[in-house]
Write a structure and sequence with these properties.
One of its GO terms (molecular function) is heme binding. This protein has 16 helices and 8 strands. The chain is α/β, with parallel strands linked by helices.
Length: 396
């Protein structure tokens, strides 16, 4: 079939032609937006799940919902080597700029931007030379005495409170979207929790919507003990068969292409229902199928091509980031679980003939790199679906 008309889109955060299987999350967020806009108490939202389940895609879809309701929005991607001051400043600057044309008091906007600039400038080292000091793109003088103490928790509470005041004036809300939220540092996570806690008590129309790996709730809990009551946690998992089928058939139908039921069943078996894999196998199948309807035989012909692409771009790129010691650790994990489920760290040490303490550096480094996570004490699992299966097929 014509590859130019191929509707499938495997890519990091790239929205598929049909956002299948996420209707419940989209509808629930509509309720959150409406409640917050009406001054009703509502928790911020955290999406968790493995890589490849579509967290970033869903995060972007929720942001589009907020924009559709005329909210101010900003989005950042957390990084383990960067604090939150600079990216949060940019996100809130964008959000308030979206609301500014509807605000009746320009001076009030300028006052907030002065506070925002003061908050942002605290990210500069105190002894940095003038030429080395970062300057945010905010064309008002920095304010003094508000959100500039240098204590991120105090400053973020004040900044979020002031931003929520701007949204209240306009009669709408502000949403800050944070991807890869598990990479937020402990002090910054604590500050986020404190700011969200303050806003929930005041009823301020500002929410945080985060997305991260399955251990994100534990990261937040380690920063503030009340975090489990502060956020609405939503686990994003693989698609059910009917949703995976719809992700394939709906865009194909627009191109007058159909799938035989046996082809859909085979595609689900290969992809496991993980949205990224659904798109990857769907794209390869389209390119290899001679005509409609697509058959199970077409899927099997295309499968090696999809798997080769996943081996390089999805699995291989992550495996290449690991050191020899880390690769040994992951291979030990893969050999212990045919289903790629959680495995005991003591069992890994036993299988490798090592003491558990000697493997701690490799395990901790893999967690920091986002290749594995610890959902429960004493166990680890891969953050990437089918990663163990991939490792078991690779030569040592």
């Amino acid at each position: 079939m014509d590859p130019v008309r191929n509707p499938y889109a495997p890519g990091a955060g790239q929205r598929p032609p049909v956002l299948a299987g996420r209707d419940r999350e989209v509808a629930a967020f509509d309720v959150v937006l409406e409640r917050v806009a009406r001054g009703r108490p509502e928790r911020s939202l955290v999406l968790t799940g493995l890589r490849g389940v579509g967290k970033t895609v869903l995060l972007n879809a929720l942001r589009s919902q907020a924009i559709g309701r005329l909210w101010g929005t900003g989005k950042i991607e957390a990084r383990p080597d960067q604090g939150l001051r600079r990216p949060l400043s940019s996100a809130l600057h964008m959000a308030v700029r979206e609301l500014a044309p509807r605000h009746r008091a320009p001076d009030r906007i300028d006052d907030f931007l002065g506070v925002l600039k003061a908050f942002a400038l605290r990210s500069n080292p105190p002894n940095a030379k003038l030429r080395d000091r970062w300057q945010p793109g905010i064309d008002v003088p920095a304010a003094s005495g508000r959100a500039d103490s240098g204590d991120i928790e105090i400053d973020l509470v004040e900044l979020f409170t002031d931003a929520a005041g701007i949204a209240t004036d306009v009669g709408t809300g502000i949403a800050v979207f944070i991807d890869e939220m598990q990479d937020v540092g402990l002090a910054d996570a604590s500050a986020l929790c404190a700011a969200c806690h303050e806003l929930s008590q005041l009823g301020g129309p500002l929410i945080v919507v985060g997305a991260g790996l399955p251990h994100l709730p534990a990261v937040l809990s380690a920063s503030k003990s009340y975090s489990e009551r502060l956020f609405r946690y939503t686990r994003i998992d693989r698609l059910e068969p009917d949703a995976a089928d719809r992700a394939l058939t709906a865009p194909a139908k627009r191109e007058d292409v159909e799938f035989e039921p046996s082809a859909l069943a085979r595609l689900y078996e290969l992809s496991g229902g993980y949205p990224y894999f659904v798109q990857a196998y769907g794209k390869a199948t389209w390119d290899n199928a001679p005509a409609s309807p697509v058959t199970a035989a077409d899927v099997m012909v295309a499968a090696p091509e999809a798997e080769a692409e996943l081996a390089v771009g999805f699995f291989g790129s992550r495996y290449d980031r690991a050191t020899p010691a880390e690769r040994e650790y992951m291979r030990g994990m893969a050999e212990l679980s045919d289903t790629d489920g959680p495995v005991s760290t003591s069992d890994i040490a036993k299988s490798l003939g090592r003491k558990p303490s000697s493997l701690s550096p490799a395990r901790d480094s893999l967690i920091k790199k986002g290749l594995i996570y610890s959902g429960e004490r004493g166990t680890v699992a891969f953050t990437v679906p089918h990663f163990g299966r991939y490792l078991r097929t690779q030569p040592v």
